[in-house]
């Protein structure tokens, strides 16, 4: 899940454990353009304090106005914003945008704590909300899935954040790690070269010891993992990429020119028992083409491609 949404759940749990009235508000449907995607969440306390967002700000203001100082319902409530052009303009929605929200009041703090513990432990959990009485069930899930809603039930799967493993601790890696953290990824870096690893300066990023291929295997890549090799050194990159290509990682990339990237693919076919099909998953040259020249620009191109593939953008 997005790290911002995780922060929302953590703050909501804290408020409820303090016996404060608080609500969880979820985007459940959008039509046309909308500022926040389906599944986005926001928490609101009874005094109007808010964490997270469901729009650019105007909807949040209306929600605070509706519920601050007024009795709170016991059952979940459905609200739609932007039904006509005048209302869309009033709430700052893009042209034609409509947003449907579900507000649930005073969620059980014990269940919120259980949900957060499951996420912390890397487990996927389906959270089912009864629209009739507001009761919540937590069910172990095998795979991520989009939010669904019927007249009687809202169901969404929560789980750990997306992860990025970077091979190489150079300047480009520092820019990319910074952008990945900013975009909600949990980031780790592996570089056995002490002259690089000892100079790492990005806070909140785990430094993994040992050889990169061992780091990839220890990282246990899943469908929420991306692995990017940035050392330019075949001795470090190739075996790590080999392990990554045979994992469930949704994105595997390596830096290099078109010529060097072609040579890497051929090297993996000739010496590492790969086939043209098995190396097809490798994104190299890494990143989308934006004419980037500097390390910061190259990091932007890589991060853009990772996000596009994470979001299922065709042609990424």
UniProtKB/TrEMBL annotation:
Pfam families: XdhC_C, XdhC_CoxI
Location of the XdhC- CoxI domain: 15-66
UniProt superkingdom: Bacteria
Domain XdhC Rossmann: 164-306
Official protein name in the record: XdhC family protein
């Amino acid at each position: 899940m997005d790290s911002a949404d995780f922060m929302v759940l953590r703050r909501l749990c804290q408020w409820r454990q303090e016996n404060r009235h608080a609500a969880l508000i979820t985007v459940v449907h959008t039509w046309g353009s909308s500022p926040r995607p389906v599944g986005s969440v926001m928490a609101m306390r009874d005094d109007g304090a808010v964490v997270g967002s469901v729009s650019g700000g105007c909807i949040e203001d209306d929600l605070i106005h509706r519920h601050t100082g007024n009795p709170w319902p016991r059952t979940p409530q459905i609200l739609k914003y932007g039904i006509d052009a005048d209302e869309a303009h009033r709430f700052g929605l893009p042209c034609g945008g409509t947003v449907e929200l579900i507000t649930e009041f005073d969620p059980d703090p014990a269940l919120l704590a259980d949900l957060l513990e499951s996420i912390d432990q890397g487990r996927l959990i389906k959270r089912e909300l009864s629209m009739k009485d507001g009761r919540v069930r937590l069910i172990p899930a095998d795979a991520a899935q989009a939010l669904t809603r019927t007249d009687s039930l809202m169901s969404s799967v929560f789980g750990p954040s997306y992860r990025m493993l970077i091979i190489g601790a150079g300047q480009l890696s520092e820019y990319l790690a910074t952008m990945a953290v900013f975009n909600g990824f949990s980031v780790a870096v592996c570089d056995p070269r002490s002259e690089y690893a000892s100079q790492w300066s990005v806070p909140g990023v785990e430094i993994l010891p040992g050889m990169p291929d061992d780091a990839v295997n220890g990282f246990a890549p899943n469908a929420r993992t991306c692995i990017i090799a940035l050392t330019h050194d075949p001795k470090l990159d190739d075996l790590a990429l080999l392990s990554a290509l045979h994992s469930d990682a949704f994105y595997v990339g390596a830096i290099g020119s078109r010529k060097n990237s072609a040579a890497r693919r051929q090297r993996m076919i000739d010496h590492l028992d790969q086939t043209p099909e098995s190396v097809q998953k490798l994104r190299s040259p890494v990143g989308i083409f934006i004419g980037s020249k500097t390390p910061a620009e190259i990091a932007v191109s890589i991060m853009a491609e990772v996000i596009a593939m994470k979001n299922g953008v065709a042609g990424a």
